[in-house]
Specification:
heterodimer; A: 531 residues; mainly alpha; Cytochrome C Oxidase, Chain A; globular; B: 183 residues; alpha+beta; flat
Chain lengths: 531, 183
């Protein structure tokens, strides 16, 4: 490895053309491709762990009554399923894609800050080991919901400080990752790659990274206040001492709402890359896509109150949050329109990335519509804390964020490994996922409208049928994801050679397609010229 | 690293700017705490008026107007305190000083400290409800099993909007034995 004190030249990174051998390659990794791979593998593992927790939840909800787990354990599963899927699966997967693809797309030799990159990845396994180990401490895992509302979350047992420190570590990791992304994009672009020529995936990440820097520290502050309330007798959220638990909800959702866009904007970017490729047309309204992402990012800071309509707030505030929330439908509508217009009269072909992208477009819009319903204050009073909310955010996160990630993986996997994967297996994975994600989540709309509360292990008998359907969908969706892992492992091991362009079609923006497949360990050591 | 390499220098400059932004966001998160108080006071929500510690004098009594004051009382958790108003509601004239009593009893076998937190609804009316004396102004100490009446004296501002003819004063009674420290 390069030695900091002996290397006085600016070129010490260039000495190694081959990756280091064995574990050192990964522990001391500074190569963006290695770190990207580690992020992606890590998030896949977390996806299966969080998924296993979801299976426990769906198994318990298969029938009314308490069959498999006790209520406290059920609540531990719902809480930690959310924390692991958000901070362990979706966010690291996007950071992994950013690591792999941003330098390749903008013609940079690596990320701008490779050592910090190593650090921001390696914090994560420790953070999640800490989080998962709370399963074995007295009192069990946190069970008060991933939103950590006090006073309930303050009643968490010995795992409470471990949970808070794990969240701090995840936050530090994401902030460092975001700083790295911004510095790379701002300072490392190839000559001629000006901001408006930049590929949409890179654009979406630039904006996401600013969101991360703006809100992750706010979450760190909020959980630190919880910690001091718990251990040092402060009264930030303790009404007896003059604090206010509702204030936590405001601070939390000031972080929480931009956070949901952190989990979807990079997916918007991926979809904007894939649809033009397989429609063989340039992206419709590319510049308006960038403005739409920026408007959504801006609006995300002023709508947090819609998460707490039912907690009591002045009518003027309710109206403001309702209107501003509904305003988000405008830039989102621009995006959906542009994506559809991109496909309009295109020469479409349906490879796995395109299938996932089309499913994203269709199913994410359903999640957007239920979001509009939830934005209406009087309607929200009915939907609040029901399965309708669960159905809504799973529609935007599973066929939204996760299908976006899968689309991206299927799109760029041949570029990473140099092999084509099994199209048949990948398409099977797609159809099973697309069908069962709907069997899983669509009935939850009905359950929620009929009044089934969320986060409860038992339910009234009239909810049985749709819960059974939903659970069957859940098990089938969960099992189908094993195919995803199989396709990836097969593709990493071998297969038909991929060409540099991989997909025949138009690749108007990204420089990744000018490199051979697999992309060499060190790429763009001399900057390419972009015309 | 070559300190003169312009690329590295540009990177370092941007990292520094982004680190300052991160610190700014962290500070903003903490600044939300006082900001929340300011906004609640401006909007007249909850306990905001009491926290302001404003002194009030009896003003011109409005004999032609009657307003109903309803009293609610609930312990924050079951089992530690019995807590209820002596009367469910009163009819009052704005501008006149009134007194109401609440009864609280320590149900546990050890000395306890309780803190009452008031809330006035409908929202936005807290700034018209002036408490001149209240058991909620300080933590209340109770011996084991002790019960007693506690007064609140108040004036409703004659400026109360004319469409409001009913106010609710609700107290939540928190066990503050753990966090009780001399303030």
């Amino acid at each position: 490895m390069a030695n900091a004190h002996s290397s006085d030249t600016a070129h010490h990174d260039d000495h190694h053309d081959e990756p280091a051998k064995g574990i050192k390659r990964w522990l001391f990794a500074t190569n963006h491709k290695d770190i990207g791979t580690m992020y992606l593998v890590f998030s896949l593992i977390m996806f299966f762990i969080g998924g296993a927790m979801a299976m426990v939840i769906r198994a318990e909800l298969f029938q009314p009554g308490l069959q498999l787990v006790d209520p406290v354990f059920f609540n531990q599963m719902t809480t930690n399923h959310a924390l692991i899927m958000i901070f362990g699966a979706v966010m690291p997967a996007f950071v992994g894609l950013a690591n792999w693809m941003i330098p390749l797309q903008i013609g940079a030799p690596d990320m701008a800050l490779p050592r910090m990159n190593n650090f921001s990845f390696w914090i994560l396994p420790f953070a999640f080991t800490l989080l998962l180990s709370t399963l074995f401490v007295p009192g069990g895992m946190a069970a008060g919901g991933w939103t950590l509302y006090p006073p309930l979350s303050l009643q968490t047992g010995d795992s409470f400080p471990m949970l808070i420190f794990a969240i701090h570590m995840m936050g530090i990791s994401s902030i460092m990752g975001a700083i790295n992304v911004i510095v790379t994009i701002m300072n490392m672009r190839a000559p001629g790659m000006n901001l408006l020529k930049m590929p949409l995936f890179t654009w979406s990440w630039l904006i996401t990274a600013y969101l991360l820097i703006a809100v992750m520290p706010v979450l760190a502050g909020a959980v630190t206040m919880l910690l001091t309330d718990h251990f040092f007798k402060t009264s930030f959220f303790n009404a007896a001492g003059g604090g206010d638990p509702v204030m936590f909800e405001h601070i939390f959702w000031f972080f929480g709402h931009p956070e949901v866009y952190i989990m979807i904007l990079p997916a918007f970017g991926i979809i904007s890359e894939i649809l033009p490729t397989f429609s063989r047309k340039p992206l419709f309204g590319a510049t308006s896509m960038i403005y739409a992402i920026a408007s959504i990012a801006f609006l995300s800071f002023i709508v947090w109150g819609h998460h707490m309509f039912a907690d009591g707030m002045p009518v003027a505030a309710q109206l403001f949050y309702m209107m501003s929330t509904m305003l988000i439908a405008v830039p989102t509508g621009v995006k959906v329109f542009n994506w559809t217009a991109t496909m309009w009269r295109g020469s479409l072909s349906f490879e796995p990335p395109m299938l996932f992208a089309i499913a994203f477009l269709f199913l994410f819009s359903i999640g957007g519509f239920s979001g509009l319903m939830l934005a209406i204050v009087p309607a929200d009073f009915q939907y609040n804390q029901t399965y309708f909310v669960v159905a809504h955010f799973h529609y935007v996160l599973v066929p939204g964020a996760i299908f976006g990630i899968m689309a991206g993986v299927y799109y760029w996997l041949p570029k990473w490994t140099g092999h084509m994967y099994s199209m048949g297996l990948a398409k099977t994975h797609f159809w099973l996922s697309a069908i069962f994600v709907n069997v899983l989540f669509f009935p939850q709309h009905f359950l929620g409208l009929a009044g089934m509360p969320r986060r409860i292990p038992d339910y009234a008998v009239q909810f049985t049928d749709w819960n059974m359907v939903s659970s069957i969908g859940g098990f089938a969706f969960g099992l189908s994801q094993i195919l995803f892992a199989v396709v990836i492992i097969q593709c990493a091991r071998g297969g038909k050679k991929a060409t540099a362009v991989v997909w025949e079609g138009t690749h108007p923006t990204g420089l990744e397609w000018t490199l051979p497949s697999p992309a060499p360990y060190h790429s763009f050591t001399t900057a390419p010229e972009v015309r | 690293m070559d300190p003169l390499d312009p690329k590295k220098r540009a990177n370092r400059k941007l990292v520094r700017a982004l680190a300052v932004m991160t610190a700014g966001s962290f500070a903003f998160g903490w600044a939300l705490v006082p900001l929340y108080d300011v906004l609640c006071r401006a909007a007249g929500i909850g306990n905001a008026e009491a926290k302001a510690g404003k002194s009030v004098v009896a003003e011109a009594i409005d004999p032609n107007r009657e307003v109903t004051i309803e009293f609610l009382a609930q312990p924050a958790s079951v089992g530690s305190f019995d807590f209820r108003p002596k009367v469910a509601s009163m009819r009052i004239h704005p501008g006149k000083l009134y007194s109401a009593e609440f009864f609280a009893k320590n149900l546990t076998q050890q000395a306890s400290v309780a803190q009452a937190v008031p809330s006035i609804s409908p929202s936005g009316t807290a700034k018209y409800f002036h408490k001149t004396e209240c058991f909620c102004f300080s933590p209340q100490k109770f011996a084991a099993g002790e019960g007693r009446d506690m007064p609140v004296r108040f004036i409703v501002d004659p400026g109360l909007p004319s469409n409001v003819d009913k106010l609710t004063l609700a107290y939540t009674f928190y066990d503050a034995t753990q966090s009780a420290t001399p303030r």
